[in-house]
Write a structure and sequence with these properties.
By secondary structure, this protein is an alpha+beta fold. 33% of the residues lie in helices and 29% in strands. It has helices at 12-21, 31-34, 86-102, 124-131, 156-168, 178-192, 201-210, 248-252, 255-267, 289-297; strands at 2-6, 46-50, 53-58, 61-63, 66-69, 79-80, 107-111, 136-147, 171-175, 215-222, 225-234, 238-246, 273-278, 301-311. Strands 4-5-7-14-8-13-12-11-10-9 form a ten-stranded mixed sheet. Strands 1-2-3-6 form a four-stranded antiparallel sheet, sandwiched between helices. It is elongated. It starts with a strand and ends with a strand.
């Protein structure tokens, strides 16, 4: 009944159309986004057909006998059509496992799509992971999100920052100057953590060019001097802050507080969820307390990003 085929570039249009019509997909699964770093990952995405019709997708890469869904994405679980049922998804995972065994895959790492990104209930995969794959939870990262129709008030520390920024006369504006923002971001990450941003400035510009309606940059200015900003990924019901950063001067005068007051209460006040992203270190349960303190100050509360694993 189910046929599993490995994705090939000639199937890009069919893949992208299925993502757009799915109940839990986002533009991160569009091949124009996924393939920007195709040189770093050996793609092993799967297309699952039922009676000749595309039923589900699994964005994935493969390395040393391990299939990861997906190593280059924040999340990468099964992308499901609205035809997917609990029993059907169980059968899908049984078929996927059979296909992977034939490919000599030994282990699967699966990063489920967090529930806030679901446009319809879509946790059939989580049930199948335990009932069919006997998967185990190996990583639980914590993110922080705001519900648009049930916003909590900002804490006094965030309100104080907003007052400072307004007294200074700072302004929030949409921008396309990704190079300037990237430099602010890079300076922060290298000085605090000794790491660089996942995306280069050129990659951010490339992706913005491909998805101008889904990738936005907002920056805070003192006159014409940029003090900080955020790169946003807009999905059907979630506004995700991909990057947030400010200069030392911007931090001192509340630039980021003003920025998110403007975005949350004005520009994107009608968004269902605003997701500030993870506050745990990569592949670890270590909580970055300073980072999550800032996010919770805007009224955000916990949403978990879960990663599962099973052997074949």
């Amino acid at each position: 009944m189910f046929e599993v085929r490995r994705y090939t570039p000639d199937k890009a249009d069919e893949w992208n159309q299925s993502v757009a019509q799915s109940k839990n997909g986002t533009f991160l699964f569009d091949r124009r986004f996924m393939d920007y770093h195709a040189d770093r990952f050996e793609d092993c995405s799967l297309m699952i057909y039922r009676c000749g019709a595309l039923y589900a997708l699994l964005p994935a890469n493969i390395k040393d006998g391990v299939l990861t869904s997906h190593g280059g994405l924040t999340y990468g679980g099964l992308v499901m059509s609205d035809k997917c049922s609990a029993k059907g998804v169980q059968q899908v995972f049984a078929a996927i496992n059979e296909c992977l065994r034939a490919m000599a895959v030994k282990r699967v790492v699966y990063k489920a799509v967090p529930w806030i990104y679901h446009q319809q209930p879509a946790e059939e995969d989580l049930f199948a992971l335990t009932s069919i794959c006997e998967a185990r939870l190996i990583i639980r990262d914590i993110s922080s999100a705001i519900m648009g129709d049930c916003k909590m008030p900002f804490t006094e520390s965030r309100l104080s920052g907003i007052r400072k920024a307004r007294r200074r006369g700072l302004e929030v504006r949409e921008s396309t100057d990704f190079a300037t923002f990237w430099q602010i971001l890079n300076d922060n990450l290298t000085s605090k953590y000794g790491v660089r941003p996942v995306h280069s400035a050129a990659e951010l510009e490339l992706l913005h060019g491909r998805f101008p309606g889904q990738i936005k940059l907002y920056m805070v200015f003192d006159g014409e001097t940029p003090l900080g900003g955020t790169v946003l990924f807009l999905t059907p019901q979630v506004l995700h802050t991909q990057y947030i950063s400010a200069t030392q001067e911007g931090k001192a005068c509340g630039a980021i507080d003003l920025l998110f007051d403007h975005l949350i209460h004005q520009v994107y006040s009608d968004y269902r969820y605003i997701d500030f992203g993870k506050s745990t270190s990569s592949d670890s349960a270590d909580l970055n307390e300073n980072l999550i303190f800032q996010k919770e100050g805007f009224g955000a509360r916990a949403v978990c990003y879960d990663t599962y694993e099973w052997t074949l």
